[in-house]
Amino acid sequence: MRITPILIVVLLLGCASLLPAEEKKPANVDGKWTWIYKTKDGKDAEATIKLKQDGEKLTGAYLARDGKETPIQDGKIKGDELSFDVNRDVGDQKMLFKYSGKISGDTITGKIVFGRDKPTPHEWEAPRAKE
User: 83: which strand partners?
Assistant: First the structure.
């Protein structure tokens, strides 16, 4: 059997597809991120989150309007996708906020899922704060 150049190319391409895909390095998310959201009574309010990464591990804190910091939990970043939880005091009860998003340059866009009875997703877009 004679091996032709076309057969060699096909075999090489087939073997290349068996190699593991190159993993993306995590995006840089260190810093403060702020966004505007609507309160229950329809007023605009600003939210801030501080993030620090160590490889694919994400730590940080949510900064409330009163200055209180609540640590994030289960923070992860893989490539340009991140997720973390914040268990905040809302009124006199704790409420879990589940954040997920994608970072592009100096902006994170994604969803926040929260609510006591029926957790619902809310869009969020947070630019990196200038320091």
Answer: 76, 100
CATH code, domain with 121: 2.40.128.30
Is the CB of residue 102 less than 8 Å from the CB of residue 81? yes
The pTM for the full model equals 0.76
Sheet architecture: strand order including 44-54: 31-38, 44-54, 57-63, 69-78, 81-90, 93-104, 107-114, 120-127
The encoded tokens of residue 4 equal 């032709």
Domain assignment present for 42 = yes
Domain count of the fold of the chain: 1
For 29-51, write each residue's pLDDT tens digit: 999 999 988 877 888 888 999 99
